[in-house]
Design goal:
The complex is a heterodimer. By secondary structure, chain A is of the alpha/beta class. Helices cover 33% and strands 9% of the residues of chain A. The radius of gyration of chain A is 26 Å and the shape is globular. The longest helix of chain B has 37 residues, at 334-370. Chain B is globular, with a radius of gyration of 25 Å.
C-alpha cells in the first residue's frame, strides 16, 4: 500500500491490514473525501464548450506567455467535486443552527426564485434609468418598509454588510459634527456591543472608550452619563445587546447623549427580536444598520454576502451616502448620484461603494417582508423571543445562566462554562454537540462573561426541534459536568477531528502549491511568516 | 405565515414552561410607552406565495434585462454567460444556507472551497496570496490604500486617471475621514495611459500608486516601469482589475510587479444583479500577508493527522483586535466566491484563455464595425473587450435614443464624469461572448440612425 497523496486526503493503509477506522480511499460509505481541484484537475481540461475558434490576437506585447496554472474539470467532475464538498458542511437546511448573534433562520426558496428573475438578476447598474424603473422601485419599496418598521426618517441602502453599515452610520455622525463645526473625537462603546463597533469607529478616525456593563448585563447608565462631554461624538450601542437583553434604559441613554451634543448609533444586528414590537426611532436612535440576511432572511452562503442598510434620524439623514433611489410625484424613480447630489442631497458624505448596494439581497428581503406582512413580522419577533426564553428556562438547571435573573432574554439565551468539571470548557461542549448532529452555539462571545455560549434558536424552529436540541445539549452538559474524558476529543463523527488552528496561524499555508519542492527552496510560509 | 412552525398549543405550553402568562410578559423590559400595540400602520398583512411572486414579477418586468436584446455595457460590471451548473451548485442548501465557517470540523466544504478560491485568485492575479474575498472591487480598492498606508507609514495615494470614477469616489469618501491625501485627475481622451507621468510623480510621501488594468477607457499598458519606479521610492503599486476575464489573455499585474492586486470578480460566475452582491478580489505579495484585511483560510491537520482547513490569522481581525484591527470587515462574499470558483473550475486554464480570446475577437470586430459609422472613431490603441468610442456629439443623449430603439449601447463618459465636458463625447463599449454578430450589426445601424 502506498500513500497516494502526501498531503493526506488519502490516508496511508494501516500496515497491519484494514482496521475499522481507515479505508484505502479514505471514503467511508456516503462520507466521501474530496481532493483539491489542483490535485485532480488539468490545465488542458475544460467543462465549457465554445462555439467558435480563438481568433487572432492584437494585444501590443501584453499577451500572456507563461502558464497561469488553473486546473479545469469536466462538467460532470465539477458537479461531483462541489456536491461532495457541500456534504462536509453543516447548514440551516440540515437542522437547527443556534449561532447567537448570527441569526440563522430558514431561507425561503421563493426569495431565491424572485432574485433570479431576469428583470432583477440580469440588469446592469449603469443602464439608462428609464430601463430599470422596477429595480429602483424595489429599492424604494424596501426603504419604505425599513423606515416604517424602525420609525426613522431616512435610510441609506448602499452598505454591503452590517459592518459596512456601521461605517456608514459613523460617517454620518462625523459629517453631522463637521457641519456643526465641532471636532468630537471619542465614541463610547459598551462592553456588551458587537466587536465590529470599535474597529469601525477606529477606521473612521475616532478613538474608542469602553463603557462597562452592570452585573445584570446591561449598559452602566451612570458610568455612561459620567463620561459624556464636549469631546464625545456619541455612543455605539447594541440593542438588544449581546447578552441577549433589551437595554431598558435606551431612551434615557439617548436623551443623555443628545443633551450632551452627541449621537446614538445602535447596532441593529438583533432587530429580529423586536421587529413589529418597538420602533428604534421611538427610543431616540440616530442611526442603526439592519442586517437584511438576519432579520429578513437572505442566505449567508458560508460567510456572505450580507447587506446592511442604515436607517437614519432626521438629524443624520442629510448626510447619508449616494447613490439612492428617489420617487417622484408621477410615480417614476430617479437615482440621485454624484451629478444631482449637489442640488438634491448637498450634505452627503459621499459614495461608499461602486454601485447601488446589494440589489440581489434587496429583492430577497422585500419578498420575505411581503410574505410575512406587518402582522407576520410582529409574530416573528414574538416567536423568536418565545423560543429563546424556552431554551433559557429549559437549560438553566444544567448550565450556568449568568443573567437568568435579569428578566426575560430577547431572541438569544446566554450561558457560561461555570460549574463544569475541572479542565472542561465551553469548547468541549461545542465540539460534543457536533457529535449529536448540531452546529454549536456561538462560543466565547460576548466577552463580558467567561466561557460564553450564546444560543439563538430563531422563530423558524418548531417546539419539537427545540425539545430535541435541549435534550442533546443537556446530555452533553451533564457529560462535561461529570468529566467524561471522551468529550475532550470530540467531535468523533464529524468529517474532521479537532483541527490544529495554532499550526495554521504559525506557518500559514494560504494557497496550494506543488507538493514537490526543490531542496533549499524557502516555502511560502517561511517567506510570509512573522 | 407559512415560515412560522409554532402552533397556538405550542405557544401556550412553552409560556407555561417559562412561567409567563402572556407573550407580552417576555417584552417587559421594553418601556411600555415605546411598545407598539398592534401591527405597524401603512404596511400590508402577510400574503400568499402566489401573490408575492405576482407583485415581484410585475416589478421585474419593468426592467429591461440584458438578455432581452443587444447589450454592450461594462465599466466595472460585465455580462458573461454563466454555465447552468454554477447556479445549480451554489443553490445546494449546504452551501447556500451555511454560516461563516467558525466550526471547522463541520464546515470543511466551505473552507476547502475558500482555499481553492484563494489559490485560483492568486494565480490569476499573479501574486503569492489572496484572501477569501471582499464586498466588491471598489471597497477592496480602498482597503488596499489603507493597507499601503499601514505598510509604508505614508499617507499620500496617487490615483491613475484611468481608475473607475466610482472607485475613486469611494476612496475620496474614506480619505476625508482617515486623513489620506489623494492625488487624482480625470482621464484625457488619448489612446494610451499616462503611467510615465505617474511614475515621475512618485515621491517619498507616496504610500501607493493605484492603476486600473484594463482601465476605465479600456486601455491596456505595461506597468513594469511604473512598478520599478514605485519600488525605487518605497511606494507600493496597487493594480485594480475590474474585468478578470482579461487576465486569461494578458499578463497579470503581479507578473509586472504590482505589490497588491485587487479586483471585481463579478464577471466570473456572478450575475450583473444591478450592482451587487459582487465579489471583491484581494491579493498581495507574501511578505504583506499579516497586513491584509478580511478572512483568510489556511491549511492545517486535524487530531488524526488528516489535512483540513481553518480560518486563520484572525489576530488581524476586528473580533480579536477591536480598534487595532486591519479592517472592520467581517462579512466576505462567500457565496459569490463559490460561484467564481466553480465557474473558474469549469473553465480551467484552457477554457479561460479561449473565453478571453473570443471576447477580444468580438470586441475587435465590433470596434471595426462601429468605427464605420460616419463621425465615429475608436480611441484605443490597445484593448481587451472594452473600448471607448468618440462620437461627434455628446454620448449621453445618444445612449437614451439607442435605448428607445432597444439597444443598450454602452456607458457614456458623461454619466461617469458629469462635471467634465471634455469627456462628454466618449462612449465606453464592452463586448463579450454574449454579443452576437447580429447584435453588433444592430448596434451599428442604430448608432448611424441616431447620429444622422
Amino acid at each position: 500500500m502506498s500513500t497516494l497523496n502526501a498531503s493526506g486526503w488519502r490516508p496511508e493503509m494501516n500496515a497491519g491490514g484494514a482496521d475499522d477506522t481507515t479505508t484505502f480511499t479514505g471514503n467511508r460509505a456516503l462520507m466521501l473525501e474530496e481532493p483539491l481541484i489542483f490535485e485532480i484537475g488539468l490545465t488542458g481540461t475544460t467543462g465549457v464548450d465554445f462555439d467558435e475558434a480563438a481568433p487572432a490576437l492584437d494585444l501590443g506585447g501584453l499577451a500572456r506567455t507563461a502558464p497561469i496554472g488553473l486546473p479545469g474539470l469536466s462538467e460532470g467532475e465539477t458537479v461531483r467535486h462541489y456536491t461532495r464538498l457541500s456534504r462536509q458542511n453543516y447548514a440551516i437546511d440540515l437542522g437547527l443552527f443556534p449561532l447567537g448573534s448570527c441569526t440563522m433562520k430558514h431561507n425561503p426558496r421563493l426569495n431565491e426564485k424572485v432574485a433570479r428573475m431576469p428583470g432583477f438578476a440580469d440588469i446592469h447598474p449603469l443602464q439608462p434609468q428609464e430601463t430599470v424603473q422596477g429595480a429602483l422601485g424595489v429599492i424604494n419599496e424596501l426603504a419604505m418598509w425599513l423606515i416604517k418598521l424602525t420609525g426613522m426618517h431616512g435610510v441609506a441602502m448602499t452598505p454591503k454588510a452590517g459592518a459596512h453599515g456601521e461605517l456608514c452610520g459613523v460617517l454620518c455622525i462625523k459629517a453631522a459634527l463637521e457641519a456643526r463645526g465641532e471636532d468630537r473625537r471619542v465614541l463610547l462603546v459598551p462592553e456588551s456591543a458587537h466587536g465590529t463597533n470599535p474597529a469601525t469607529a477606529a477606521f473612521a478616525g475616532f478613538s474608542v472608550e469602553d463603557i462597562p456593563a452592570t452585573p445584570e448585563g446591561r449598559v452602566d447608565l451612570a458610568a455612561l452619563k459620567a463620561r459624556l462631554g464636549p469631546d464625545v461624538a456619541g455612543v455605539m450601542i447594541t440593542n438588544p445587546n449581546t447578552c441577549g437583553l433589551f437595554e431598558r434604559d435606551m431612551k434615557a441613554i439617548s436623551d443623555a447623549v443628545h443633551a450632551a451634543g452627541g449621537y446614538v448609533y445602535c447596532d441593529g444586528a438583533n432587530f429580529n427580536a423586536i421587529v413589529g414590537k418597538v420602533r428604534p426611532g421611538d427610543l431616540g436612535v440616530d442611526a442603526m444598520h439592519i442586517n437584511l440576511h438576519k432579520t429578513f432572511s437572505t442566505p449567508h452562503g458560508g460567510g456572505g454576502p450580507g447587506s446592511g442598510p442604515v436607517v437614519l434620524s432626521e438629524a443624520l439623514s442629510p448626510y447619508g451616502p449616494i447613490p439612492y433611489s428617489a420617487r417622484y410625484a408621477d410615480g417614476t424613480f430617479k437615482l440621485v448620484e454624484e451629478e444631482s447630489a449637489g442640488a438634491e442631497h448637498p450634505d452627503t458624505f459621499g459614495r461608499m461603494t461602486a454601485f447601488h448596494g446589494q440589489m440581489g439581497m434587496f429583492t430577497r428581503a422585500l419578498t420575505y417582508m411581503l410574505s410575512h406582512g406587518a402582522d407576520g413580522l410582529k409574530q416573528v419577533a414574538e416567536d423568536a423571543v418565545l423560543n429563546a426564553n424556552y431554551m433559557l428556562r429549559s437549560l438553566e438547571d444544567v448550565l450556568d445562566a449568568p443573567f437568568g435573573a435579569s428578566g426575560p432574554c430577547m431572541h438569544e439565551a446566554l450561558f457560561t462554562d461555570d460549574g463544569l468539571a475541572e479542565g472542561f470548557s465551553t469548547l468541549d461542549i461545542a465540539k460534543g454537540i457536533i457529535d449529536e448532529g448540531y452546529h454549536p452555539m456561538t462560543v466565547y462571545f460576548p466577552l463580558v462573561v467567561h466561557g460564553a455560549m450564546l444560543i439563538e434558536p430563531t422563530e423558524t424552529e418548531s417546539k419539537a426541534v427545540l425539545d430535541q436540541f435541549i435534550g442533546a445539549l443537556r446530555s452533553v452538559a451533564l457529560r462535561a459536568k461529570n468529566g467524561d474524558p471522551a468529550l475532550k476529543s470530540a467531535p468523533h463523527f464529524a468529517p474532521r477531528a479537532r483541527l490544529d488552528e495554532t499550526a495554521a496561524a504559525r506557518k500559514p499555508i494560504l494557497t496550494w502549491s506543488e507538493p514537490v519542492v526543490a531542496p533549499g527552496t524557502p516555502s511560502l510560509s517561511e517567506i510570509g511568516g512573522s | 405565515m407559512r415560515y412560522l412552525p409554532l402552533t397556538a398549543d405550542d405557544r401556550s405550553a412553552m409560556l407555561a414552561t417559562i412561567g409567563a402568562a402572556t407573550i407580552d410578559d417576555l417584552f417587559v423590559d421594553v418601556p411600555a410607552e415605546a411598545r407598539l400595540a398592534g401591527p405597524i400602520e401603512g404596511l400590508p398583512d402577510h400574503a400568499s406565495e402566489l401573490a408575492v411572486e405576482r407583485h415581484m414579477g410585475a416589478l421585474a418586468r419593468r426592467n429591461r434585462a440584458a438578455g432581452d436584446g443587444p447589450f454592450f455595457l461594462g465599466a466595472g460590471a460585465y455580462r458573461h454567460h454563466v454555465p447552468a451548473s454554477v447556479d445549480h451548485l451554489i443553490q445546494r442548501g449546504e452551501f447556500l444556507t451555511a454560516y461563516t465557517p467558525y466550526q471547522p470540523e463541520i464546515a470543511q466544504g466551505t473552507l476547502q472551497m475558500l482555499f481553492e478560491f484563494q489559490s485560483q485568485v492568486a494565480r490569476l492575479l499573479g501574486t503569492d496570496v489572496a484572501n477569501a474575498s471582499m464586498y466588491d472591487g471598489s471597497t477592496a480598492c480602498w482597503e488596499a490604500v489603507v493597507m499601503a498606508r499601514r505598510i509604508t507609514k505614508r499617507a499620500k495615494a496617487l490615483f491613475s486617471t484611468g481608475v473607475h470614477p466610482h472607485y475613486r469616489s469611494v476612496a475620496r469618501t474614506m480619505a476625508k475621514y482617515t486623513g489620506d491625501a489623494l492625488v487624482e485627475a480625470d482621464p484625457e481622451l488619448v489612446p494610451a495611459t499616462d503611467w510615465a507621468d505617474l511614475a515621475a510623480a512618485v515621491d517619498k510621501e507616496t504610500s501607493c500608486v493605484v492603476v486600473q488594468y484594463p482601465d476605465i477607457l479600456g486601455r491596456i499598458d505595461d506597468m513594469a516601469a511604473l512598478a520599478a519606479a514605485c519600488q525605487a521610492s518605497g511606494a507600493l503599486l496597487i493594480a485594480v482589475v475590474t474585468e478578470p476575464v482579461a487576465l486569461g489573455l494578458i499578463k497579470s499585474p503581479g507578473e509586472m510587479g504590482a505589490d497588491i492586486v485587487v479586483g471585481e470578480g463579478q464577471s466570473i460566475g456572478v450575475g450583473l444583479q444591478f450592482g451587487g452582491p459582487y465579489v471583491g478580489l484581494f491579493a498581495c505579495k507574501a511578505k504583506y500577508v499579516r497586513q491584509m484585511p478580511g478572512r483568510l483560510c489556511g491549511e492545517t491537520v486535524d487530531a488524526n493527522g488528516k489535512r483540513g482547513f481553518v480560518l486563520t490569522l484572525s489576530t488581524r481581525e476586528q473580533h480579536i483586535r477591536r480598534e487595532k484591527a486591519t479592517s472592520n470587515i467581517c462579512t466576505n462574499s462567500g457565496l459569490c466566491a463559490l460561484a467564481f470558483s466553480i465557474h473558474m473550475t469549469l473553465l480551467g486554464e484552457a477554457g479561460l484563455r479561449q473565453l478571453a480570446a473570443i471576447n477580444h475577437g468580438r470586441a475587435k470586430a465590433a470596434a471595426a464595425e462601429l468605427a464605420k459609422v460616419p463621425g465615429v472613431s475608436v480611441l484605443n490603441s490597445g484593448f481587451f473587450n472594452e473600448f471607448t468610442l468618440l462620437l461627434p456629439t455628446a454620448a449621453r443623449p445618444v445612449v437614451h435614443k439607442l435605448a428607445e430603439r432597444d439597444i443598450l449601447g454602452g456607458v457614456s463618459l458623461g454619466r461617469l464624469y458629469p462635471d467634465n465636458d471634455g469627456l462628454a463625447n466618449g462612449l465606453v463599449v464592452a463586448v463579450t461572448e454574449t454579443c452576437t454578430a447580429e447584435d453588433i450589426a444592430a448596434f451599428a445601424a442604430a448608432l448611424k440612425e441616431v447620429l444622422a
